[in-house]
Write a structure and sequence with these properties.
GO molecular function: hydrolase activity, acting on ester bonds
InterPro entries: GDSL, SGNH_hydro_sf
CATH class of the domain at 40-242 and 336-373 and 391-423: Alpha Beta
Distance between the termini: 43 Å
Organism: Pedobacter nutrimenti
Number of helices: 14
Pfam family, one: Lipase_GDSL
Radius of gyration: 25 Å
Number of strands: 14
Strand order of the largest sheet: 1-4-5-12
Protein name: GDSL-like lipase/acylhydrolase family protein
Strand content: 5-15%
């Protein structure tokens, strides 16, 4: 006890001390509430698998948010939880980006880890297969609409590594529900818009809204049954984050590019960048246009060719794949809003917990202190996003785990302890 005052009488001090320091117990006894966490499974994509730094590797898998949740669930009756880890001698999985230093202008230097990968001998596509029980069914690259496709295992090596020859054509939804479970988390749908956004609107097409609603309802209707032989399951679903608010789109900006150009030899006085939007002719970029994180690593602004300096002349504009123009930003926002409306509606219809990942990542992305650690969406220094600018750091995944835990506790009256976020790192420095 720390006293603010000095008392001359030792007796008075002793008496006061006894009264003031009477033990006060204010602890919460862990409780499962109305849920059963005996067998928890996690359904989702790369964010569920622990994907980070542009790859799936063992350290990322060990820091996946479902694993963190499952560990906390053990205090309220949760059972064992297995993630399909890569073997120690193939710990680098698909390979991943490592920060190796910084250039004189402060931009980061990264390299791709290429040792101890998990590819099968003679293949650069398919991984060594995993055998054993699975609770974490996170599959990088999977869309919601892929979950019911027979033969999807032949198209996605991250899913294929979980299968055998006999189950190779099994749809993802059938696979995750092939065993009984009592509780699930589901975070699918991100990739139904992500590819369109990260390609600058030049590649993938967003999933049709009506189809998204149809498949989302189907998947949840099967999960709440609790799997083959199950007696029903409760669970938590999550909204889709706004990809335009990630470090992938908020690091390379019109202002930062122009500043770099003007600071370079012969670049003084440049006031405009030119882009090729999704539709129409080349035009001047505005602050409403978002540039991809990959622009400056792939292209050199101002580099001359026969059509003029790259990005500085309307005859040689920045290609559409490196910029999500303002009209494409509006498309992304529209689809994210529609998908999230579906997710909220289905969560309500099936009486499930809802984790608003969209709001959560915006809140932390704007800057927030967590147990003395500052978290923000700033690339590298913000602790939230990994080196690919989309996926999270271990600290970011711990924050996500707490978002899920808080949603579960609020819905089911449980008291699962939250994760100590400060035990997990941000971007790993060299």
């Amino acid at each position: 006890m720390n006293s603010k005052y000095f008392y001359k009488s030792a007796l008075a001090l002793a008496v006061l001390g006894l009264a003031a320091c009477k033990p006060s117990v204010n602890t919460t006894v862990p409780s499962k509430g109305t849920a059963d966490f005996t067998r928890y499974i996690a359904v989702g994509n790369s964010l569920t698998s622990g994907f980070a730094d542009g790859g799936l590797y063992l350290d990322g898998q060990k820091n996946c948010f479902p694993g963190m949740i499952a560990e906390q669930m053990k205090t309220v009756g949760g059972g064992s939880f297995t993630t399909p880890f890569f073997a120690d001698n193939q710990a680098n999985g698909s390979g991943y980006l490592k920060l190796t230093g910084f250039n004189a202008n402060g931009t980061p230097q990264t390299t791709k880890e290429t040792s101890n990968l998990a590819y099968r001998p003679g293949s650069t596509t398919f991984f060594t297969r995993y055998s054993g029980d699975i609770n974490n069914y996170g599959v990088p690259g999977i869309k919601l609409i892929h979950s019911t496709i027979a033969g999807y295992g032949t198209l996605n090596p991250y899913y294929e590594r979980m299968l055998t020859d006999a189950t190779l054509t099994t749809p993802y939804l059938n696979f995750v529900t092939s065993k009984p479970f009592t509780f699930f988390s589901m975070w699918l749908g991100n990739n139904d818009i992500l590819g369109y956004a990260t390609s600058g609107g030049a590649g993938d097409t967003p999933t049709d809204k009506a189809l998204f609603t149809q498949v989302y309802n189907l998947v949840v209707s099967q999960l709440v049954k609790g799997g083959t032989g199950g007696n029903g399951a409760k669970g938590v679903v999550a909204t889709i984050p706004d990809v335009t608010a990630t470090a992938f789109f908020r690091t390379v900006t019109l202002k930062s590019i122009l500043a770099a150009v003007n600071a370079s030899p012969g670049g003084a006085g440049v006031t405009d960048l030119y882009i090729k939007p999704g539709t129409g002719a080349a035009r001047k970029a505005t602050a409403e246009d978002l540039f991809t994180l990959t622009l400056l690593s792939d292209r050199t602004i101002g580099k001359p060719d026969a059509t003029g300096p790259y990005g500085l002349a309307p005859t040689n504009p920045i290609e559409n794949q490196y910029v999500l123009d303002k009209d494409e930003v509006a498309v992304v926002n529209d689809y994210v809003a529609s998908y999230n409306a579906t997710i909220r509606s289905v969560a309500s219809a099936y009486n499930l917990a809802l984790m608003d990942a969209n709001a959560m990542l915006k809140e932390y992305g704007a800057g927030k202190e967590v147990n003395g650690a500052l978290v923000s969406g700033a690339f590298i220094t913000g602790n939230l996003f990994s080196l690919d600018g989309i996926h999270l750091t271990p600290m970011g995944y711990a924050i996500t785990a707490n978002g899920f835990i808080n949603a579960i506790n609020a819905k089911y009256g449980s008291s699962i302890p939250i994760v100590d976020v400060t035990k997990y790192r941000g971007v790993k420095f060299p």
